[in-house]
Specification:
The structure is a single chain. This protein is mostly helical. α2 crosses α3. The strands form 2 sheets. The chain has a two-stranded antiparallel ribbon with strand order 1-2. It has a two-stranded antiparallel ribbon with strand order 3-4. The chain is built from 9 helices and 4 strands; from the N terminus they run αααββααββαααα. 43% of the residues lie in helices and 8% in strands. The chain has helices spanning 11-18, 23-29, 31-44, 93-100, 106-109, 141-153, 159-173, 180-186, 193-205; strands spanning 62-66, 83-87, 125-127, 133-135.
Length: 206
């Protein structure tokens, strides 16, 4: 999961709130504003899925996800801090989260989830060279539960994600003479920039 610094919200969201639009109406009647939201989210996230880190290269496979589901929390439908660009895949990420959470468990699950814009996931997760994501050692009980719950709800140890992170670690072994910025630039289209940052941080701590 990435730490996202959200900028000022796109102007179209205020219009949607003032005119009491639902999400489908916003998408259809204000399509340019919807596209502007998606572009801004893509830029804020440096072209990576907010939840998984997968590169958002295929526009047909990208959507604006409501971190808190709009069907359960309609008042958050046009809250910019609730909207993230995410890859569509039912096996992990936003779609997996939406299937995991329903009206019965939402009030219990959401307080235990890390929020990409409100929390810094790098403080909660550790990545092994096998690609596995785990809670960092030394976390308190509450933070450890948040890390574990976030991994489960977004299925962040799905084999596809594991394989991609494992391959990245293998690539990084060959990039150790480069600076972090040089490596991030070289691997810009690969995604998982937060894993690269974690790798360099661990190297510096050794």
């Amino acid at each position: 999961m990435k730490h996202i610094i959200k900028k000022l919200e796109p102007v179209g969201l205020e219009y949607a709130r003032q005119h009491n639009l639902n999400w489908d109406e916003f998408h259809e009647q204000c399509h340019d504003s919807y596209v502007a939201c998606r572009i801004q989210a893509h830029e804020e996230q440096v072209g990576e899925c907010a939840y998984t880190g997968m590169p958002l290269n295929d526009s047909a496979n990208i959507h604006l996800d409501h971190f808190k589901k709009k069907s359960i929390y309609p008042n958050s439908t046009f809250d910019w801090n609730n909207l993230f660009a995410a890859i569509k895949n039912h096996q992990f990420g936003a779609d997996y989260k939406d299937n995991y959470i329903d009206g019965e468990n939402a009030a219990n699950v959401y307080p235990k989830l890390l929020h990409p814009a409100l929390n810094d996931p790098t403080l909660f997760f550790w990545y092994s060279n096998t690609g596995k994501i785990e809670p960092k050692s030394g976390l308190g009980d509450i933070d450890r539960e948040k890390a574990i719950t976030t991994i489960a709800v977004f299925n962040l140890n799905n084999e596809t994600l594991l394989s991609r992170r494992r391959q990245l670690f293998q690539i990084l072994q060959c990039y150790q003479e480069l600076t972090l910025d040089e490596t991030l630039s070289a691997l810009k289209t690969y995604g998982f920039s937060f894993v690269t940052c974690a790798f360099y941080q661990n190297q510096n701590n050794d």
